[in-house]
Amino acid sequence: MTAAVRVMLGGFGRVALVELGHGLVRHAHPHCHMLFKVGGADTNFIVDDVPIPLTDDSVVLVDAWRKHEFVYKPGQPPTQIIALYMDSDWLSSLSSDLGEFNPLHFFKSSSGHVSRATYRILMAIVDCLNGAAPSKAEIEHLLSHLVLSVLHQPSPGTGTAAPSGRLHLVDWRIRKAVKYLQHNSGDFETIEYMIADMGMSRANFFRQFKACTGMSPGLFQNVVRLEQAIRLTIDTQDSLSAAASSLGFSDPAHFSRFFRNHTAVSPRLYRQGASDWLSR
């Protein structure tokens, strides 16, 4: 079971309130990412294969392009979360006093502390998502204070340092592959086409791609496809069947399953959650 989603959009990026009642596949985002528990059971996210607690007083912190997943155990009570997907320009200006901004190595740890003051800000944001109607400037002010309150808290000592090998595109062939995937995410034959075009063996291409990006070509393609799926779901009035087709899904049910396995909700609910916000 999944509760109705709430989504806010703005210069800060994207904020979603969802209920986790099933697992999320291993995935990544091109944004720095914060996950807060706002109700239900304590749980864990897996970040680079390490369990990171998500509780009332701990937040999960994920750098851009860093792999993470949620493993659901049958019978486990659901958890309500707020997920922040932060625009890099917004986050860079917000955290300018913290030194040089690098979204690949932004967080010092995968876990942060939620103080009482942070929790009060978080609950004010939940109120906004659930129907309170402050101005967009007031919402951005709340989000700024939420993020800064976490960044200025000492780390609880749980988590992993960011790995050093992600998105180091030193191989021109992998740079070409990344660019091609970013522009052709709707073609499920893209990866096989690139391998043939570059004259590399399949094993060598996969090995070199992972060495440069920290993930498989298929996972990278899914990251790009998910962002395009969210854009089509939120920013257009295209039917979900048309969105599915443009992203290479022959069956809308497969598209819906892909979307749900990455965001916790169906594209229909996600669109509804965003339209409620955009119609205010």
Structural features, described:
The protein is of the alpha+beta class and 280 residues long. The chain has 2 domains: 6-151, Jelly Rolls (Sandwich), CATH 2.60.120.10; 172-278, Orthogonal Bundle (Arc Repressor Mutant, subunit A). Helices cover 43% and strands 20% of the residues. The chain has 10 helices and 10 strands. A hairpin with a 2-residue loop joins strand 1 and strand 2. It starts with 5 loop residues before the first strand and ends with a helix.
Major β-sheet annotation:
6 strands, antiparallel
Number of domains: 2
CATH classification class of the largest domain: Mainly Beta
**What is the CATH superfamily of the largest domain?**
Jelly Rolls
Can you name the CATH architecture of the largest domain? Answer: Sandwich
Apparent shape? globular
> Which strands sit side by side, in order, in the main sheet?
1-2-9-4-7-10
Mean residue pLDDT:
87
